From TrEMBL:
Transmembrane segments: 6-24, 31-48, 93-112
Domain of life: Bacteria
InterPro entries in the cross-refs: Spore_V_AE, SpoVA
Record-given protein name: Stage V sporulation protein AE
Pfam families referenced in this protein's UniProt entry, alphabetically: SpoVAC_SpoVAEB
Source species: Candidatus Anaerobutyricum stercoripullorum
Amino acid sequence: MIYVKAFLVGGLICAVVQFLLDHTKLLPGRVMVLLVITGVILGAVGVYEPLQQWAGCGASVPLSGFGYNLSKGVMEAVNDEGFIGLFKGGFRAAAAGTSAALVFSYLASLIFKPKMKK
């Protein structure tokens, strides 16, 4: 059942993003920033954590989950370390995911030989 929940929530997020890309003049970079900010706002309001617990990877894998993860890390670091936590918390919270993305994208570039579009 967790797979169905993850598929539905992740699919809904992807469908909303695709709608924004197809029917508005928003560029992909702005839509990605919008997703991150949405995750931060929903996390601050207290909505995103229950959604992530219910849907699992369907809510944590999209960019909105990345925004929520960053904001959660900053809030925890500020509570523990004070003002300096503003600068350290986001890095600590997102380090594993960002590192994995860099390593796997590098490995993929070695395997598939990327080329510039003309």
